[in-house]
Here is the input.
Amino acid sequence: MSSWRWWELLRLRLRSLGQRGRVETELKKELSYHLERQTEENMAAGMNEREAREAARRVFGGVSQVEEECRDMRGTQYLENFVQDLRFAARTLEKNLSFTVVIVLTLALSIGANSAIFSVIDGVLLKPLPYPKADRLVRIFYRSDNYPKFPLNPWDFLDFRARNRSFESMAIYTHADLQLSGAGGDPVKLSVFRISSGYFRVLGVQPARGREFDFEEERPNSGDVVILSDRLWRNQFAAAADILGRKVMLDSQPFTVVGVMPPGVDHPGNTYNAVAYGDTVDAWTTFTFEGDSNRRGSHYVEGIGRLKPGVSAEQAAADFNSIMAQLATVHSNDRGWTIYMNPLYREVVGPVQKLLVVLLGAVGLVLLIACVNAANLLLARATARQAEIAVRAALGAGPGRLIRQMLAESLLISLMGGAVGLLIAFGGVRVLVGLLPPGFPRANSIHVNGTMFAVTAAVAIGTGLIFGLVPAVQAARTDPQKGLHGAGRGSGGNRRQTRLRAALVAGEVGLACLLLVGAGAMLRSFVNLLRLDPGFRPEHVLTAEIALPEANYKTTESISSFYQSLLDKVRALPGAHAAGAGTDLPWTGYDDNMGGFVFEGRRKPGPDNESHARYHVASPDYFKAVGIPLLSGRYFDARDVKRSQRVLIINDAMAKTYWPGEDPVGRRLSFDDNPKESDWFTVVGIVGDVKDTPGSSAAEPAFWWPLAQEPFGFGGMKVVLRAESDPVLLTDGLRLAVREIDPSLAVAHIRVMDRVLDEQYSTPRFALFLVGLFAALALVLATIGIYGVISYSVSQRMPEFGMRVALGATGWNLMVMVIREGVLLTGVGVAIGLVCAVLFSRVLDNLLYNASARDPLTLVGVALVAMITASLASLPSARRATNSDPMTSLRAE
Amino acid sequence: MSKPSDLIQGTLDLLILKTIALEPMHGWAIAKRIQQVSNEVLQITQGALYPALHRLEQQGWVRGAWRESETGREAKFYSLTKAGKAQLEKELEQWHRLSNAVVLVISAARGQEV
Here is the structure.
């Protein structure tokens, strides 16, 4: 059949439905034309008008019957019947308002929750990343036995770029905040990335004005240039049309603006000193570097590339590994590394993919439970309506017709639930986005959209069909004779239906237990996290960031003296206990790594013996202010000045890794392959370990240079203030102190350390909250289910209870009987649920910290909660059972 | 019941399709034509014609259009669609097969009787 014909048929059906009035008029007109013609013919044959008309009608047959048959031919009667069914269903539901409200609300809650979670998944996981051909973007890392993902060394990058055969273009970038001044108003700290020339070509975005950096600008001293984000251009430069070529002051240095990006250029995210994925970057400057191309131990730049069409990430990694092998023959620092390529999509959403899928699973289970509940309530009502159904069956309604009618009812319920659910989803998406942990990837692309509407509608219809089918088939199987007979006796329930309802409730209890076990495991994991010793003391600590412009603070001395005088000032503030400055705060992401140490008195490490540690800089009181304990040796102090002995403090992990079984204090190490006497650093202290994040399996080796001796001239520091009580009270004092020393400086990111901690807990807390919420919802739904079945069973057994009382049973006996029924029913469900929980427990493994869904305590706890809930749900019915009257029972029999 | 009891089930469609294959016609004319051409042998109940016409229309085999009839009044004229022409071919072929088969059976039965 040609598609044209399908189209034609559809048009005809739609016409029959949509223009019903016109189709009807035409039918009447057509038939009356026929009758008139026949009448005229008869008159021409000599009849008078009345005879002629009657004769015409006679040969025609019954006009209204013909009309009806013509209507049947339109092929739309199914739909018209359906509308009829819907009307009937609406009337029935209106009569059982409380019943309807309960089902619609429970469905609405679960459908709404599903749609809201779906919206989040749609925005975060399903939408492609906002770059052209985003599936070809790949993040490039080093990998070794100890480090699964490690940043690149820029010299290596140059070699990769020159020899690469797999990428259309590739780039490196690294976080380097700058301070903008002289744009009118106070100095502002900007989130800035230093990028190599191909960066925007890799991402596939062109500047809205001006141009991208070119190759020449990668060379040191080629002149400072900057590309502004649309946001910065509008907010700080009033969207000036003549911005290109203008000089702006960044860290007190003039930078020439060469480009402005269009709005919404999403930062692809970075791992080290992490900046969240999204529109989080204010400006980009060129990445330049100098030094000895044979020293490649420093790893601090992030790699990204756009694959050539048809090249996979694995092929590219193989290509790069062969380049790496060549490099390793020349550069000892490059030994022991392989290349790891991770598609950008996976890099961005990978950390939350599992969590979101688990949440969707949890909310899906809730919906399933709500379905079971709705089916159960419909079944109960179908039993009560058995007489009505029997009458309809006796009057000739076939099984198909009965099923359709029952389905119309369930569809009406589920569509109402869907409509209310949509409202809940609207609010829910907003609440969810508000609850999302800070830095949640792609939170900016979560929106309520048409997809959510479509999904909600589909889910609503799907649910209606699922929970309507069981009662509908049951109704269709109604035997009219038995139904009418039973209804007359007022005890219509049959065993099969009761068993079916009990099985459904047991199933829903099982599902609820599954969720409860998940929530319980997450709760334990969260408690474990909170109990974890962070390795520092976050209470009463205020932190802030200051970036000293290189132009004004060129030397380590000038930097060190700035911080020294600042720290002296703030320590003197009333309520301040200790003040320190350091390059990094605990639990705020990875740091940079230094490698290739030489240990005094030991053989030079072989190529396979790689040594690496995170490097930091700290002022004397930094550890005291952050609350990291000294394990051995000493903290930095006034002795550690520029020209004194060069010293280091290391953490316990570094001590155990590189001096196993020895005391490192007093030992020396160097970062030079062939150290002179002045290249040696003496370990003076060992401090406690702090993990990268609370979820990390172990702390990484790390060391600190004293502020006065650090080799790189780090101007950007985090100031840490430990207060006697509320640290927020020190905020103004800190600002004032900075302004007194250098009014051109911005104090950025002022926050209390508790908040830093809080952000670290926010993801597991988010997961716990939602799974807990869904589990609670599931428990409530299961309670309704248990209550419904037990209550129905009691009303059926009232005569029996009466007899028992007549035979000497006490009220207590009856209550125990009823509650036992509820608990037994639940027990079966709990058993099913716990077995499933153990079977599926691996799903949660990566999301838990030192906890498991196979944990016996959790399982027992859940079983107890379920049993207690079952007893409580049976209690009202049990009390009703004690009201049974022996006389009524005897009379009825 | 207005079912055409004197017509073999299903042949009414064939008759209608064949009749309007020549030119578009309205219902009354179709009824008259079938009667005349069959020498008044096929007496269809006139009313039964319309459900059949409407079914054929819904199946896309005929198309109805209102225009002025020979008496000057508006009537619904039915014409064959492309799909309808194909359907007519199919039904004709079936009819020939069926009637041949019936003839064969009847003549064979007659031979046995003799």
